[in-house]
Each structure stands twice: as C-alpha cells, then as structure tokens.
Amino acid sequence: MTGFTWTDDDQRRYLAIRDDLAGVSTASACQLLISEGWRNTYMRGLLPLRPLGLGTRIVGRARTCRYLIRRAPDRGPDPEARRRSPEIALIESIEEDDIFCVDALGVPTAGIIGDILSARLKARGVPAAVIHGAVRDSPYIAELGFTVFCSTVHPAHSGRDLEPVDFDRPIDMAGVQVRPGDIILADDEGVLAMPLDLAELVARIGPSKERLEAWIRDKIVAGGSVHDYYPPSPEKLAEYERETGERYDH
C-alpha cells in the first residue's frame, strides 16, 4: 500500500531549510527550478479556496493519495470498508506539517474532502490539503480556517465518481509528478512540488533573489529604467550591495 521512506537525515535537512524556503515566492522558486531544468513543478489550476495573503507561504512534506474512476456503483456507507480506505488510512497516519496531496484526476463532480475530514487534518497539524479535483463544504472549510488548494468545488461526495486506491505512491497532480516526501511550497499563486535536494537549492538562493527583486521593484516605482535595473547592470548590482549591505547570492 505504501512506498514512503523518510530518514532522520531527511528530517534534519528539511528542518534546516523550512523557514528559508517559506521566504521564497512560488514565482521565484519556479524560475530557479526552470533554470535547473525542472519545467514541470507547478500544479496547473490548483488555487486556494481563500487568499492566504501577500507574502504568506506554506511549506511541508508531501503525503500522497490516488483516486481512480469508480468501476462499480457506489453501494452506500460501509463503515468497515471506510476504515480500510486509503485516504482514511493516510489521514490517520499523516504527521504534523505534512501536506495532504490527492490526485483525484481533476474530476470536477466529486468532492474529495469536506468540513469533517478537513477538521481532522487540521487537528493532526496538517497546514494544507492540495486536491487535484474538487472539494465540498467549501464555506465550512473556510470557516474552519483550513487551507485547501483545489481546482473547483462540488457538493457531491467523492464516491459519486471516484474511489481511492492507494496512498504514499507517486501521483500526478495537475501536470506534476509528486512523490511522497517531496517538498511542497505554496502561496496565493499556487503550488509547487520538488525533491528535497532542489528544495535545499531554492532555500539557499531564493531569499536573496526575493530581497533583490523587492529592491528592484522599489527602484522601478521610483522611476528607474528597466534597462538599468531589470536585470540589474553591474553598476546597479553594486548599488544594491552598497545600499543594503547585502551581497547577492547568484
């Protein structure tokens, strides 16, 4: 059922970069990943149910669940089968700071989680769920204060069209291959997934890039020319380092 491994060294490496990674926007991270040849890290069309707020980012470790199109009719509630269901097994084993990632095939007519499962995820310390598909009970999820990224909402339950088949396996999340243990970075622009070693790269370079671009933006607002500042000429880069006392980490 599960193929997830995470070592003590992985945990140490992740904790060492978590705060720095949260200082990087998905836009900056996406650009850095593309420069490394990783072109498919952004989950297309998966946006937050409600805005997080400018500069707010979510970072966590991906835990994955996969759904397939239902083969047979939904026979209604079966408590024992539900307890054995992959998505429930994952919810009851997920750890604090993990991100609940579900490939629901982008199906728009079946709500994968609602207010009750969202409440359980929040109680377990999960900062967000990312659903490649629909969710239900969206007003109650918003009231609960649980962050959910998804492609749409629908009041029907997941069993209308889908059934969970396994968890902690590689999944397709709106054009991104997500493996359990990948690092998730999300903000109001959407969700990225990347291996731990690339997350380390983004966490090392990204904050410096964010600070430089904020400085450039201020210069442009004040009337500076794009020719001079974007990208900064060597003279303007020296100006940045002189004004801020920071050296830009390429």
Task: Walk me through this protein's architecture.
This protein is of the alpha/beta class. The chain folds into two domains: 8-200, Ribonuclease E inhibitor RraA/RraA-like (Glucose Oxidase, domain 1, 3-Layer(bba) Sandwich); 202-244, no CATH class. Helices cover 37% and strands 21% of the residues. The protein contains nine helices and twelve strands. It has helices spanning 8-21, 26-35, 79-84, 86-91, 115-123, 138-144, 196-221, 226-229, 234-244; strands spanning 47-48, 58-69, 98-103, 128-132, 134-135, 147-150, 152-153, 162-167, 171-172, 177-178, 183-187, 190-194. Strands 1, 2, 3, 4, 6, 8, 11 and 12 form an eight-stranded mixed sheet that branches. A hairpin with a 2-residue loop joins strand 11 and strand 12. Helix 1 packs parallel to helix 7 (196-221) and helix 2 (26-35) packs across helix 7 (196-221). The chain is elongated, with a radius of gyration of 20 Å. It starts with 7 loop residues before the first helix and ends in a 6-residue tail after the last helix. The mean pLDDT is 94.
